[in-house]
Every structure is written in structure tokens, then in C-alpha cells.
Amino acid sequence: MFLVRIDNRLIHGQVIEAWLPYTGAKTVVVANDDLADDVLQQEIMSLAIPQTISSVFVGVENLHDAVADMPPSDVLVLFSNCSDARRAYDTGFAFNLLNVGNVHYTPGKKQISPSVALSDEDEGCLRHLTKKGVTLDFRCVPNDPIQVRF
Amino acid sequence: MGAEKKKESLVGVVVVTHGSFGQSLLDVAEIVLGPQEYCKAVGVDVNRGVDETVDAIRKTIKSVETGRGVVALTDLFGGSPTTMSLSLMKSENLEVITGVNLPMLVATLQSRLMHLDALAEKIRDAGQQGIKVAGAMLRKKTTAKK
Hints:
The complex is a heterodimer. Chain A is of the alpha/beta class. Chain A has a single domain (3-137), classed as Fructose Permease, CATH 3.40.35.10. Chain A has helices spanning 13-23, 33-36, 39-46, 63-66, 82-90, 120-131; strands spanning 3-7, 27-31, 54-58, 75-79, 97-102, 110-113, 116-118, 135-137. In chain A, the strands form two sheets. Chain A has a six-stranded parallel sheet. Chain B is of the alpha/beta class. In chain B, 53% of the residues lie in helices and 15% in strands. Chain B contains seven helices and four strands; from the N terminus they run αβαβαβαβααα. Chain B has helices at 2-8, 21-33, 50-64, 80-87, 102-110, 116-129, 134-145; strands at residues 12-18, 39-44, 70-74, 94-97. In chain B, helix 2 (21-33) packs across helix 5 (102-110) and helix 5 packs antiparallel against helix 6. The relative contact order of chain B is 0.17. The chains are: A alpha/beta, B alpha/beta.
């Protein structure tokens, strides 16, 4: 089973210091259309990843093909927002569990946990995924309590 | 006039950290050294958007740039204050140094007439040299006297 997370900051301290050691992932796959075309930003993002862990940057709709040959439990997949997660799912990247880690606040969004604020569109994407059988996990870091907040 | 010229030749300093850590460091450094110019802190509020925060960092860098370049002292290598600062190297004359501590910031503020590259090395060394197991040093000294 792939480890899948939504985090508007993609690779950052919480991912490097908490989620990578916790999951034991060997590859981080960042599924983001902007970063897939920005080599400098890819270098910046992956600079502090431990050398034993590889990083791959792909467009959201290429994710399914990109991970086809990877052992699922070795891979941590990162999306920057809910609609990218939905789009990847609808274009063939199936997953059962979605960690909703950081979705930043902007005016008009509903704050549902300290690190997650959802717009109507975000909520629609997550409902779409739960209807398909995806379980949501709203932990920001691994030792947060698992709570249903949605 | 002379004082004005000297001010303008200082390398700019921005402390970019999670939360209010950077501002607190700067407040303490100013207690040690007195008030500083072309030196500011930016706190990254993780609940705000990335683009908005990068813009705030960019504006702060521009506000301390005197033409000599700017050092961004950041907290955690791999953390978002660091990656956001690194992303501004495209457009700004900037060096980014991680692991900021008070010895580093004090050394930085004392050496801002240096060139950016040499200053960066000095800052790194000051940060590393500021870490001592001081209790053990003291014990060693006192045991030697016995």
C-alpha cells in the first residue's frame, strides 16, 4: 500500500524529520505539475533528504505510470493539495489511505484541525475519495492522535 | 555623511525561522551588541500559504539589501524557512546558512563589512565553535588542578 500525504509544503521539516523515519520509506515521490518542470526547485526540495532515500518529481497525471514498478510500501507520495490527490486517483493512481497533513488556511476556508483548513472544493475532493473507499487520516505528524475530523 | 557611507556597506542580514524564534534571537543579539541596522527577522507561519510567505521573505531581503548582498540565517536544514529562502537565490544576491544559533548571529553582526562568501564561512565556523560541552571543560580544568 502506498503511503500518500497531502502537504502544501511538500518536502519540509515534518516530512524529513518525522514521516520518513516513521514510515521507513526509501523513495519520496512528489506529484506536482509546477515542480515537475522546475529543476532548481527540485534540487532545493531534495537537498536535505538523507542520501539513502531517493526523490522523484512527476506531474500529477503521470504518477500512476511513474510508481508502477516501485514496491508500494517503500514509497511516500506527496501532493500539495486535495484536488491533485483527486486528479491522481481519477487518472489511475489507486490508494486506500490518505494522510491529510497540511492544507493551509486562506479566507473562506473552514479550519478543521490546527494544520488543515478546507475550501468547499477541497471538501468535495476528499468526499469524492472517501466515496471510492479511501480512508482519511488527519495527522500532521505521526504521533498526533488519529481523529476523525471530517 | 561618513557614517552614512559606512552603513551602506553592510551586508544585510535576515533571520528566517519557524515561528518567533528568529525575532527572539535578534532581540537577544541586540541586547548583547546594541541596536542593529539592515537586520530583520521573518517568522514562517506554517498555517499560511507558501507563495505568501516567500513574498514576505523576498520583501524583507530587499529591505536590508545595501548592494553588498544578504545572508539568510535559517533554522532547520530541509525545513520550509530554508527551502523558501533557497528559492530566492534565483533573484537575490543571497547566501543561505542553516542551523542558526546565537553565536552565529552575533558573529554575523560583528563581521558585516566582509565579502559575502568569506562572511558565510565565518558564520558557519562561529556556529560550530559556539557549541561546547562546557560542563566537561570545567570538570577537566578543575580536576587538573587537584
